[in-house]
Amino acid sequence: MVIPKSPSGCPMDALLRLLMGPWTTYILYVLRANGPTRFGELKRKVAGVSAKVLTERLRMLEQADVILRHYEPTIPPQVTYELSPRGRELADVIDRLDAVAKKRSEEHTV
After folding, report:
1. How far apart are CA 55 and CA 110, in angstroms?
2. What pTM value is reported for the model?
């Protein structure tokens, strides 16, 4: 993964700075759960994110080699996003966060 260097020089700090940006982990979760996803569908699934912020986050993740962007020059253009091979390295982390979130949700609804 191409991760920007952190001021501390610590690789974990750099990775966490990348992942903890607004909406970033949620976007990765949706891509992990749904596979290749078009922009409009991604915007609907990441409820509450603006198109501007979603675009910024997707560009940042693409530059960091975490996601792939596929452009089809059709009318209208089709843009699809998916986890890159490097992004799929995060699958276990995303799955574990999902499991913890579901467990906590169940504990609070019982």
Report:
1. 38
2. 0.86
